[in-house]
Amino acid sequence: MAETARNVAQADPAPQLAVENLHAWYGESHVLHGVTFAVKPGEVVTLLGRNGAGKTTTLKSIIGIVGRRTGSIAFAGTETIGMVSRAIARLGIAYVPEERGIYASLNVEENLMLPPQVRPGGFTVEQIFELFPNLRERLASQGTKLSGGEQQMLAIARILRTGARTLLLDEPTEGLAPVIIQQIGRTLARLKQEGFTIVLVEQNFRFAQSVADRHYIVEQGRVIDMIANDELDANHDKLQTYLGV
Ligand SMILES: Nc1ncnc2c1ncn2[C@@H]1O[C@H](COP(=O)(O)OP(=O)(O)OP(=O)(O)O)[C@@H](O)[C@H]1O
């Protein structure tokens, strides 16, 4: 009996996100062919893979914005495959697309206030400025006037206000200067400390290594391998083959 209790206590926590046999289509085009992976609460995992492997489509499928999807996507035990994206977002999942989605005609403050709160406990505006001091200084600037780094920070800041605690981030470092990439890395580390669960699509392999617990390799619409972050260096050759780098 004591043994059983210990086993239970040591068992992995239930996944925050469990994707199983996920297929997705854009119109007639069948893009995901049975993606399976899981993310534990508080984990940071990346999806790595060549261009066109299906990483972005996996994130879009989780938040419910692809044409059609089948299989299972359970969020904290709730099946979401039949839900519309707004209902999925209300469970506390947020997606930051690669193109960031900042409204050019709105200023920083208006962009920040735009997404509706989905859960209690989101960051206050003051907490956001603590995390991203540049945004306070740029509060009245139009979206068009922001640098790529400022746009990325605003895109992340905006979803922190909503109360979402699971974040899907598509290539947050793309096109940014090293000093800004470092700042984004520190932000993700802080969010991880606070218990956020993060799925990251990333081409910047060094950045991925600096922030993640585990890496899933996506190839031709499937997850074909998983590598723990502390085993990454030992698997360098394998990874090179997968990513063609
Ligand atoms: N809106 C769309 N309509 C039709 N096909 C699409 C659409 N978006 C992506 N695809 C196709 O789906 C496949 C997977 O694309 P996806 O963007 O998910 O790949 P990815 O791994 O994120 O790569 P990348 O880093 O190039 O974005 C590709 O063959 C792509 O051409």
Automatic annotation (TrEMBL):
Record flagged with keyword Transport: yes
ATP-binding as UniProt keyword: yes
GO MF term list: ATP binding
Domain ABC transporter: 17-245
CDD domains: ABC_TM1139_LivF_branched
Keywords: Amino-acid transport, ATP-binding, Nucleotide-binding, Transport
Domain of life: Bacteria
Pfam families: ABC_tran (PF00005)
Family: Belongs to the ABC transporter superfamily.
Protein name per UniProt: Branched-chain amino acid transport system ATP-binding protein
Source species of the chain: Pseudochelatococcus lubricantis
Lineage: Bacteria, Pseudomonadati, Pseudomonadota, Alphaproteobacteria, Hyphomicrobiales
